[in-house]
Amino acid sequence: MDALRRTCVALLAVALPATVLAQARVAASRDEAPVLYATPQDIADGQAVAQSACAGCHGVNGIASVKGVPHLAGQRAAYLHAELRNYKRGVRGSDTMTKAVKNLGDDALLKAAAYYASLDPPQPAASPKPAPAKADPVALGKAASAACAGCHGEGGVSAAPGMPSLAGLHPAYLAASTSAYKSGQRKSDVMQPMVAGLSDADVSNVSLYYALQKPARAPTPGTGDAAAGKAAAAACAGCHGDKGISATPATPSLAGQDAQYLAAALEAYKSGARADETMKGIAASLDAAATKNLSAYYASLAPQAPAVSRPLTTAQWAERCDRCHGANGNSTDPRLPALAGQREEYLKGVLGAYRDGTRKSAAMAAMSAALTESDIDALAAHYSRQRPRAVVYVVVPAR
Q1: Up-side HSE of residue 110: CA atoms within 13 Å toward CB?
Q2: How many whole angstroms separate alpha carbon 360 and alpha carbon 363?
Q3: Which of the residues 26, 130, 179, 380 could staple to 78 if both were Cys, CB 3.0 to 4.6 A apart?
Q4: Confidence band of 185 (pLDDT split at 50, 70, 90)
């Protein structure tokens, strides 16, 4: 508790509908930098700094009109100060910002942060357009896969001999296989025209849909001896996993797959119709009987769903973000930025930069790694429409 009191004396944060930042004492950064005690004179001095160094992009009122430039009005003072110091040190990659602050002392940075934090944050329109709903990729994949059921079975479990089951295969493998048919790398007079009209997004959505379907053994008959095939499967376990359950996304699981399809695939690798040097070498050692036996063995095994989760909704992502950034993006931690009411295109850029690693933060990299473009668009739209609230940090006396 003593350490927390030293580094963040704002132990009680109260969100208010309008800004009142008088006598606000907050920790300036995470690394024990000097604390800021914002007096009216500090704020007046900070306004002068802002007018000379910041207003051109961020506005003297802290409401930016330049695309890609964030609003600063009502932002948390400690966060602003820490970021200004990072720009000055060149830790944050922006030549424009580094040039703007390079000649400012730390006292000026502190006061500029206090000034912008003291301003009323920008408010969204009284009746803002609702954020566009994020499309459900699984529902889109189901719709796009409607033409596939005739061959691959309802829900992706094949009922047609010679046709593979798709349910429960990893989306990385399914997407790669579909793309190979589109490009002609895999040859099939049936599959190539079927997938020719699919966009990359369609392929991704269909692959995800099938990956999330409950796998089951294909009910199609096999003609080989499964017991005899078990011995031959020892050479396959290194890639396709014990009992046909692959641990590698790019390598398909074979358990429960249609036996005739497996046999045909092995023959295609053997003849070179499917190009894969590893598989060609393995298939070349199998005669027709061994191929049927191996296929029958894998067809007899129980399939298992891959470790793939249904994508989070925007509400679920926002709930995770709110854990640090406060309810509806109104941070009550002076060291963490508020997101509510921020410019939408700025939020998109920042989230993309964290995900791609061009903006550094271990916590944000972990949070953003799984974000898709549609996730980023939806989150930016969500937070830009939230009503921002200023915060007063009340000093709790030491006991």
Answers
A1: 18
A2: 9
A3: 26
A4: confident
